[in-house]
Amino acid sequence: MTVKTMAEFMAEGKQPEILFWVGSAGSYDDRAKKITRAFVKLLNSANIEFAVLGAEESCTGDAAKRAGNEFLFQMQAVTNIEILNAYEIKKIVTACPHSFNTLKNEYPSLGGNYEVLHHTQYLQQLIKEGRLKVTNNSFKGKRITFHDPCYLGRANEVYEAPRELLKELGVNLVEMKRHRRTALCCGAGGAQMFKESEKGDKDVNVLRTEDALQTNPDVIATGCPYCNTMMTDGVKFKEKEADIKVLDIAELLANNQEL
Amino acid sequence: MNYLPNILFAIALVIGIGYFVKNVRKLIRNIKLGKDVDVSNNKSQRLKNMINIALGQSKMVRRPVAGFLHVIVYVGFIIINIEVLEIIIDGLFGTHRIFSGIGNLYGVLIGSFEILAVLVLISVIVFWIRRNVIKLKRFWNSEMTSWPKNDANYILYFEMVLMSLFLIMNATDVSFQAMGSGNIISQHIAPLFSKIPEHTLHLIERSAWWLHILGILVFLNYLYFSKHLHILLAFPNTYYASVKPKGQLDNLESVTKEVMLMMDPNADPFAAPEEAETNEDPEKFGASDVTDLNWVQLLSAYTCTECGRCTSSCPANLTGKKLSPRKIMMDTRDRLEEVGKNIDANKGEFKDDGKQLLGDYITKEELWACTTCNACVEECPVSISPLSIIMDMRRYLVMEESAAPMELNNMMTNIENNGAPWPYNQMDRLNWKDE
């Protein structure tokens, strides 16, 4: 697929419209890579001039910061900011709410000031501007529940964009009892993704999956690669993977257009 | 001897208010043990938050039943206390219902106080039932035993008694009943006392009056020892709480200094530190005790009224982990009180007691169970952030003690070496393009 790096744009003496921040999960995790590819397909179908940093991108440092390692976080941040500023990046779009939050909120005081959007916000903009079109309706009427990622929802109060996109697809959006600001965490945030959980009587992702299953959905939609992993594991734990898919909003849009 | 009641009243008032002021001073002293933090920005947003959240109770009503009842008690508490002004003037000058001269308005005022008193009484009884009969789960977590549990009930009993005394005082006040205005509730209680001789009735009225005002003074002084401090501290706490997006953690400035130095190609790695810095202790990263936290976090600890909305929405707690955001706040306050008492006992100076917040109150197991999901922060009706304390303590564990769980150390080593939390080569970052 067509993906150009910033270095390539630079060589051509051009500036892309947006920088797509892929993030570590989107770059390496097998499941998340599919989300990355789906989003790129949408960008290409809308003829967006976008760039990625490729090998020049490095972890934002979110997980390190939330694990308590402020040193490592700031080292990562300063390194990334140096590259972003060198390329004179103005607008960043990312499919990972953790990158989104860190780039948007925690980089400015270290010298990194950019307009940062979550991919659902950006896709919504593209549709509004008529640059991205929803022409098929393969998800029309499907029961879909949306799991709010903590770092998109509560952390940054983005609740509408993903839901607006689902509406564009004409799906039957069925909300979980805990949704929007009361949404339950999937269990991955705060560096939990990378460690065993403490002793308890249940895993957080199982509890959250139970929330989702109560809506009797065809698809559990989300907007975060980590939430995606946790919910996918939860659905498997409940042995429902044959009936219920866990998909990113970008995947729903791309699948709908058969991209 | 005619002035004896006036004198006794004045003494009670001076002792009651004096002791309260003394404890408020102690409270402020303890809060100031925290580190300084700049809260001078966004004044209008802060004011708006205080008006909406504390005065307007906007977050309370998100849980409609408790919220509605709380608004009644809150409004009742504020409005009925106008009556206290009259009681104080009457008590000091030996007058009786000094404001009754203002005519019809007096009846309207007392009448609305009486209605509110009944509503407050009913609300408080419902609160008691929710806590003790229905046993809502969040009131029965493991940190809600002994004092916290009793404290909550004592407050309810206090309010029941105060409201009852107010109504009895009015019902047994013969001249007030004779006025026939403003006794909208008490006129229905008065018949209960109809067989009692006037002399005894007067005695009951005086007793209710005295117990009512003494009760208020005792309650005022109970605040400092109780979770009920929120009725005062909710206001400063909602004002000083963070105005940033919830997802934004502060960037430690002490770390920035060192990182910038490390990244500066012109920095001399062998340079001696500047003169001014040599006399200072190197700054501690993160928090292991209450004095490492900032004063807003300490103010929050005193503000917490242990309602447990945070804990009831915490994913870790809901899945049986030890972490309870409410306990983080309660522990912080308990430890701060302990430090304060230590200072009092040692003539104004803290003597090391071999204890600290980390380990003796809050365990690593609790700290590592947090997903930083902000549910607790979102829920808190008075804008407390238990998460900020958890984060500061994690920072201490990692940066001062290198005591992160092994898997997290692996994750951090990976970020350091490969720029990703997993052990993949950074050069492979774009491989997804061709897969």
From TrEMBL, chain A:
Keywords: 4Fe-4S, Iron, Iron-sulfur, Metal-binding, Oxidoreductase. It comes from the Bacteria. The keyword Transport does not apply. Residues 28-103, 144-231 form the Cysteine-rich domain. InterPro entries: Cys_rich_dom (IPR004017), HdrC_iron-sulfur_subunit (IPR051460). One of its GO terms (molecular function) is oxidoreductase activity. This is (Fe-S)-binding protein. Pfam families: CCG. GO terms for cellular component: plasma membrane. The keyword Oxidoreductase applies.
Automatic annotation (TrEMBL), chain B:
GO terms for cellular component: plasma membrane. Gene3D superfamilies: Alpha-helical ferredoxin, Transmembrane di-heme cytochromes, Chain C. Residues 295-326, 359-390 form the 4Fe-4S ferredoxin-type domain. The chain crosses the membrane at residues 6-24, 65-85, 105-129, 154-172, 207-225. The lineage of its organism: Bacteria, Pseudomonadati, Bacteroidota, Flavobacteriia, Flavobacteriales. Keywords: 4Fe-4S, Iron, Iron-sulfur, Membrane, Metal-binding, Oxidoreductase, Transmembrane, Transmembrane helix. This is (Fe-S)-binding protein. It comes from Pontimicrobium aquaticum. One of its GO terms (molecular function) is 4 iron, 4 sulfur cluster binding.
